[in-house]
Amino acid sequence: MIRVLLAEDVQMVRGALVALLDLEPDMQVVASVANGDEIVPAVEKNKPDVAVLDIDLPGMDGLSAAAQIHEVAPATRTLILTSLGRPGTLRRALNARVNGFILKDAPINQLADAIRGVAVGRRVIDSQLALTAWDGDECPLTPRELEVLRLAADGADAMEIAGTLYLSVGTIRNYLTTVTMKLEARNRIDAVRIARKAGWL
Fold it and tell me: What sequence ranges are listed for the domain HTH luxR-type (predicted)?
């Protein structure tokens, strides 16, 4: 029996997925959560074989949770379930060492097969998305530049970002200027839009 944890913030979607996966003869949903901050504690408590994680969740996002799961519960494999089928998103998922990546509009039998594949140690990635990612542009930003832009995207100003990252306000402004130039953006808001569209944020 494959023990599954499901993280999805939309209650109706979560309920439907739990019901459908529980119909599979070789699967049991041992936990379902709506908030990213609940994922790692639920993994530690329930010890699932596979954690199926949405990327966009309240609290910690699914990719950050996947990275933490690999640290605290290496026996639990991770499968990202998302509507964000962008190449940059897949690259971020691979960098977080997820074991699988499947789109939300896939049929339920495809999800069940992906869970089975991940459970036995295979890496399962939506084939069309993998081809798109192969052809997609590499992110030109450094990890620190991405971190600064991510905080700016969440609405933080230069002073707040400086406080969060323990850097000077001048350094943060320099990062934001560099990011805007690298992305050939008109301003910070445009830089966030470009990075989100590419799946880098």
Answer: 133-199
Q: Region 16-22: what's the mean pLDDT?
A: 93
User: CA 9 → CA 45, 104, 167, 193, distances in Å?
Assistant: 20, 13, 34, 23
Statement: residue 140 has pLDDT above 90: no
Q: Which two tokens stand for residue 126?
A: 């939506």
For helices 143-153 and 188-198, give the axis angle rounded to 10 degrees: 110
Confidence of residue 6 (pLDDT cuts 50, 70, 90): very high
Residue 151, domain CATH: 1.10.10.10
pLDDT of residue 61: 87
**21 and 96 assigned to the same domain:** yes
Per-residue model confidence as pLDDT tens digits over 115-135: 999 999 998 887 656 555 545
Residues 49 and 122 placed together within one structural domain of the fold? yes
How many structural domains does the chain have? 2
Average pLDDT, the chain: 87
Strand ranges (E), 2-147: 2-7, 27-33, 50-53, 77-82, 100-103, 124-125
Which of 117, 135, 153 finishes a domain? 135
Q: Are 191 and 111 members of one domain?
A: no
Residue 75 maps to which CATH number? Answer: 3.40.50.2300
Average pLDDT over residues 57-73: 91
Query: Mind giving me the DSSP string for 29-43?
Result: EEEEESSGGGHHHHH
Residue 115: exposure state from Cβ atoms within 10 A (0-12, 13-18, ≥19): buried
